[in-house]
Structures are given as structure tokens and as C-alpha cells.
Amino acid sequence: MPESTLAIEPADDLRYDLSSRILRSGIDMDVFNRRISIAEAATIIQQSLDRKYLGAASSSIIHHLGMMHERVTALQATFPASALHAIAIKANPVVEVLRELVHAGAGLEAASIEEVELAFAAGCPIEKIVFDSPAKTHSEIEQALHWGIYLNADNFAELVRIAARQEKQRSASQVGLRVNPLVGGGTIASTSVSLQTSKFGVRLSTDRQRILQSFAEYDWLTGLHVHVGSQGCQLELLAEAAYRISQLQQEIQAQTGRLVRTIDIGGGLPTAYHDRTAPPGIERYEAALREHAPGLFAPNVRLITELGRAVQANCGIAVSRVEYVKPAERLAVIHLGADFLLRTAYRPEDWSHELFVMDSQGREKYGDPTPQTIAGPLCFAGDIVARDAHLPPIEPGDWIVIRDVGAYTLSMWSRHCNRSMPAVIGYDPRQPEPLRLLRRAESPGDIARFWSLGAGTGF
What we know:
alpha/beta; globular; single chain; eight-stranded parallel barrel; six-stranded mixed beta sheet
């Protein structure tokens, strides 16, 4: 596809059609560009203090369930009703959060057999679970096929394993093949997975003929899967990948006479971590896909998305009490650091978060901003949440609010220094009681049990 054709502004008729559908639905489509403001964060913290969810706690994570529901609703309104939106469990594996997604009509994408169990724990129907691990064992494949879960195979060797099981006992599972469309990388190397060096999928360039042969040989192979990366991948890359996989779908159907019924376009839609950035949003995303790969929206195609960060990140804030302030160093020590913000500590140039300062009562603090460093509680020099952040004066007992932590934070929790994981609180202003506990805080005893001989049930 020539680069010059990848203009991502939708055609007028597509824009009109989408706008008309959204207008009729009465759904706020701007929710994908909303973040929790300082005023709303203050309201949440004050209510949490009043209802004793904070108080003695040194830190808590608060997930805006209302915003999450609105984003799922907007996603469903934008795409065809037949589409499955399988939200990535790895973004946020808290079971009560997953349960809310399932109640909203979303599916769940599992990157491990353990995440499949999390999907079950959240009450997700079998037909709405997508299993994507690139390292599935014989027994995991056997188990998934027994359950009837949708599988995306990562490579040709995995197809052979699936074929061996299918020959013994045919499963009701649908199976897709992950294809690397080789559209290039985004601005963050570690989350770009469509380069020649990617460890995922089969290459569209060198493996094309074998892909066609696989679809000709295996009648249970009915889907294609593509994913180009997460955050830092421009809309042009997502649209180009969709175009290439749609073209491959048509080629397979023309040469084999078989329908490729499912197209899984993965995730990767960028989200905002700073007010100076403006992500494309769900409307422009759908319009770009519809314009460059209209075959994805055909009535006989089941479209799957695997968004995680775009749905979850802006829904979360973390609050952590300031324990000490070192005026000479212009440094404040809080109770969340690299254990919670792993990527921020190790790759701050790629992953940074905006901060608010609240007083001990949850009120916004004012004063001339000065450069200050916010340090975490772990025993290594790199445990820094923010360096030289321009913030109002900070005192012990204040609360530091960390924005946009609803994805890829708690799910990446580090056991270094063995700090206890904080409680997760759900917030939904639509409910009579807006706050509820989603996950209890760990105790020091929980950590001792975690590292003890009897903690696991395996060998």
C-alpha cells in the first residue's frame, strides 16, 4: 500500500455515517480523550478519606469504573455490533475490574493460561475469551481446545501441535494465526512488535506461501491475528497493518476457496499521559480502519479488538502519602515507586506520569511550583517516580496523586524490597455509593506466606 494513500482522515460519507450513529445513540464519544482532572481527583480522595478507605493507608489505587464503562460503551457503539472487544487482561488483572468489563459486554484477552483462569474468575463466557500466549505448552493447548476457547497460534509449529490434538478429538475452538505485517516500529522500541526482529507471529513477507498452505491444509484454521505494538504506534501503522491483513484475507480466500471468518486486529491505540498529547480517539481509529480496510467490516467477518491501555490507563489514579521531605535535596519520599511504576523507573524517557499534590485532607495545594523529585520507598538509586517535577510546596502528610495508572502498573508489580501491594478502590459516581473495595491491601503476613513453601500448589 503506497504511503501516500495512508491519509487517516475519514471520507466524508464515512464520517457522516459514524457521526449519525453516535448522535442517535446519545453516547459521549469524547470519553476516550478524557482524563481524571485535579478537581475530580480531589473529590475522590476526600470521599475516600470520609469513608475510611484511606486514613491509615499509606497508598491506594483508585479505578474509575464509571469512566471504564463509558469507554466500553463508546467502543461498542463505534464498531459493528458483531465485533468482540476482548480487553487485555495484562493491562489490569484485578478480578473485580475484569468482572465489570464482562458485565459491560466486553470479552477478555489472555496472554497466559493463568490469565485464562482470571477470565473464568471474572465470569467471562467461553466465547468471549481470546488466548494469545506465544509460548503455549502441549498441555495448555490441550486444555484450551477442551474448553473451546478461541486460540491465536503464534507460529507454524504451534499449528502442528493443534493439528495433532484436532486429529484425536475435534474441538469447537476457533483458531487464528498471528501474522507479523512488518509495518515498522513506533516511537517506543520495547513495545513495537512489527519489525523484522519481532519475536511474535509469522512474517508476511517470507512466510506468505506457507501461510496460504496452512489455510489450505487445516480447515479449523479460520482466523488471522495482527498486532503492531502498544503506545507510541501511530494511527498510520495500525491502519497499514489492517490493510495488509485484509489483503492477506482476500488472497487466502481466493486461493483456497475458504472463508477467513475472524480478523483480530489486536490493540495498540495510543492514550494520553500528558495534556499536551492528543491521541486519535476511537472515532478516528474506526474511520481509518474502515477507509483502508473496509473488508474488516463485512457482514461475514467477526472482528476482534484487543485494547487494554486505551480503555484502562486514564481510568486509574494512585494516591500515596508523603512520608518525608528533604528540603536541601528538594526531594519527597512516598510509598509507591518502582514496585508500582516499573517502566517509569527504568525508562522515564518513554513512560512518565503527571502528578498532583493534595494536602492531608485531600484538598488541592497551591503555591509557586518549584522543581522537586518524588522518590519511591525501594532501596536502589533508580527508584524515582518523577525528577524535577514542578509542583507546589510539599509537606509530610500530603498526598501525591499519580495520574493515568489504570494499565500496566499494578499488573507489573515488583517484589523488590517486598513492599505490600496497596488496596484497589473502585469509583463510580453513577452509583448511590460511589466507592467500593475491589482488592484488599496485602499485609506483611501475606508477603511471608507468598514466599513460603506452601504458597503454591504446583511441584
